[in-house]
Amino acid sequence: MQDKHAVLGVTGSIAAYKAIDLASKLTQAGVAVHAVLTDSATKLVGPASFRAITGQPVSTDLFELTNPFAIEHISLAETADLMVVAPATANVIAKIAHGIADDLLTCTVLATRAPILVAPAMHTAMWENPATQANVETLRARGVTFVGPVEGRLASGGTGAGRFAPVPDVLGEILRILGRTGDLAGRRIVVTAGGTREPIDPVRFVGNRSSGRMGFAVAEAARDRGADVQLICGATTAPRPSGVTIVDAPTASDMLDAVRAAVESSDVLIMAAAVADFTPTSPANDKIKKSTADLSIELERTADILGTIEGPSVRVGFAAETEDVAGPARGKLESKQLDLIVANRIAQDGSPFDADTNRAVLIDAGSEDALPLLPKRALADRILDRVVGLLGPA
Asked: Is 208 a catalytic residue?
């Protein structure tokens, strides 16, 4: 996200404080954030907070003379790769829909040719008012992207639709839009994540310790590089990414079906999920009682997804080992006809399940690249660098 610029418009919603967190996370992602606060917003949050977080000047007044931008709303509008209004009040949504430009924020929105994203936040009655809904539909018809609002507790103490969408959801959609011109633009990528749970009875299952973090990191990195990502999830404990299409596949059989359907129109399959190798042959319909004597469970092999499915053009597998890494991984690379395999020894420091880091070896037909301990997101980008090379020109 280096060299990307987002103009963040903040309005006088009580949720304005959440824009500080959004600005912080965008800045951490490498985006240059230029905050524009309405007069009402300044009654709730201070410009100094945004300047400290973003390291960029903060704009509040159409006629301010101290800002480095010459004609401020035009300069901001032309600088923006994306115009974000978060949170957006009903009043500002109405102004944008009707082309009213009576302050710095609305002037900037009207002047920009960049994509626009709006994250509303208001009381339920205001959100559901026919005037607001008509304004939203007008803006959607013009190509404006909306994130939220969601249902939940409101500042008034009641509950209902109108609550500002979770910051990770807004962030994910922003990064998806900013990444649309990346090196994976126009590519469809299927990523699997998490472990599968094979039922023993309605309560118990055979499973593993996968959290989904590695697959989620790959999905996020692909999204931010412009790919259309379908994420197929088994059981996970990590927060799910936004800005991707998610399909739930709790068992190995479910995941096989989901992957088979997804790869028909995809360019890349990245199998980061820890799919169970065995499943109970005859799961019990009712809970097995603890008093049952000498319980034994007969297991059968699950389908080998990568060995079963043909295509797409680039296939990436993962191999988690506790002893030798390269040997078994290279065997899987050849037997499953993969283009790349990511191998790691899970017992070593920094690479346990549910960690934020991983130490891996990238293996293809002609090379082995042993990587240092990396954050999983950094490792995801190293994997996608190889995928980009395998895909060639779009």
From this structure: yes
- pTM for the model stands at 0.85
- The CATH number covering residue 374 comes to 3.40.50.10300
242 with 346, same domain?
Answer: yes
Query: Do 234 and 153 fall into the same domain?
Result: no
Q: Alpha-carbon distance 85 to 96, whole Å?
A: 10
Where would I find the H helices in 242-375?
252-262, 305-308, 326-335
Residue 193 falls within a domain, yes or no?
Answer: yes
Q: Which of 91, 135, 208, 344 is catalytic?
A: 208
User: Residue 309: how many CA atoms within 13 Å on its side-chain side?
Assistant: 29
Beta-carbon-side half-sphere exposure of residue 344 (alpha carbons within 13 Å): 25
Query: Tens digit of pLDDT for each residue in 197-244?
Result: 999 989 889 888 888 899 999 999 999 999 999 999 998 888 899 889
Question: Who wins on pLDDT, 394 or 251?
Answer: 251
Q: Is residue 293 part of a domain?
A: no
**Tokens 């890494």, located at residue:** 325
State which H helix or E strand residue 176 sits in.
helix 167-178
Q: Answer yes or no: do 170 and 237 share one domain.
A: no
